[in-house]
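notes to self, project folder thing:

trying the whole complex as one job this time. last attempt i did each chain seperately and stitching them together was a nightmare. two parts in total, labels are on each line so i dont mix them up again. if this works i'll redo the older ones the same way
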Amino acid sequence: MVTGGATGLGAAMVERFAMLGAGVACCYNKSQAGAEALAAKLREMGKEILLVQVEVADSAQVREAVATIAAHFGRPVSILVNNAGDNINPAPIDEMDEETWDRVIDVNLKGAFLCAKYCIPAMKAARAGRVINITSISGRSGGGPGGAHYAASKGGLEAFTRALAKELAPFGVTANGVAPGVVYTPLHERTNTPESLERLRQNIPLLRLGAPVDVAALVTFLASPEAAYITGENIAVNGGLRMD
Amino acid sequence: MPALKDFALKDCARLTDRVAVVTGGGSGIGAGICRAFAREGALVAVADLNPEAAWRVAAEIEAGGGRSLAVPLDVTDAAAVASAADEIERTIGPLEVWVNNAGISRVVPFIDCSEELWDAVLRVNLKGAFIGCQVAIRRMLPRQRGVVLNMSSQSGKTGASQYAAYCASKFGVIGLTQSLALEFAREGIRVNAICPGVVFTGLWDEQLEDYARKRGLAVEEVRPYLEDKVPMGRLCTVEDVAGTAVFLASDEAAFITGQAVNVTGGLVMD
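result (full assembly):
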């Protein structure tokens, strides 16, 4: 189950899980066209993919989505990737409206809580499972200008990851964070100029922007048996931009 | 749980034809990394102070259909490490992956920690990594390509009583890792560290009695005591560390550098 799976990083994760043989539930909220295009592409290659429209901040919808996925695949979710995230209306803190703050915290933090809440019982029962939360470099850096809501949500998601890890370890379930730095997605084309992208690139020690597959490869590693003893970690995939 | 087994990736080797050197490769974690690298298609130089141990691991890899070379090596001898690296490049090819894994460990009250012991621990664990990094990176630079992995420890993230020299060396390894990651990222060289939890290897056999004394436990009580502290309820294994080493050495981790990844079952999360 990959939330925010229709576009950007999430789509790369959906694709990689599908290529590795998983049955993938691609959850999306608004990006229906992207979800359908991705599903068509993967189905053409004979991959199993289920599209689920869900607002991750809505408890009833998440509960229903998790049940739908289990019914469709005939087995419950064993790998949950909390990737859905929002970053709207950047503003200085004294000018940020409460609705903006609430919306970002709701999607990025409460959404992860709700998805975990409804997926965990089956993982505990199976005594196996993976929760992977997509955090961000901003959880440690404090984020970009006007991004207090986003940075706070991602910092919170890191702490939530550690709490999950401690609580789920006795059940053989791991919980980890993946903290991307600057990853090139269609979003950046909209919010950056070629010059500002070049400045971002120059700041990254490896001298390139991240690609969605860089993040997806770390996610599938953490989902694999090889990472069975890694839990409570927040692994950065940022080209050396930040090391703490 | 079949859904997780689907991700074993065992059918697609991730280090095909890469030349990899693993110091301390003759036993414990190092031997596990050598075996895992060979399974992923790498040509593995098993470097160890104990030539027989290196030979045993290399022979085992060869017998299993892998490709390997035994290299007697003292990681604290810079000239010897450089000439071993040259020899490896001559016989199997250009170095692409170098793992600084050789290490020693002693549990001893700080007041009783002799200058000789302090020097020995820092010499092997930290200076050995410095020498390995320099020898490896010098050879990787012309090709603008390479991966260095340094073995730190959960004791490189958090201190432990009666373990000052070891902790200092492993904290140092992370500083070395971060500095080199920054210095050589633009040259296409990635440098990362791995921080395993307690793995019961030969290294632990040697300090088991001292550890039991430190905790006021009988020797046979040490393992359950350590297991009980780990959220996952078990100790780390050689395979746990080797799996992470393979991932970090492979192109799957192409955008990961300067990181120190904990493999501790949730015991250390910083």
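what i see at first glance: Chain A has a mean pLDDT of 96.
need to look closer tmrw
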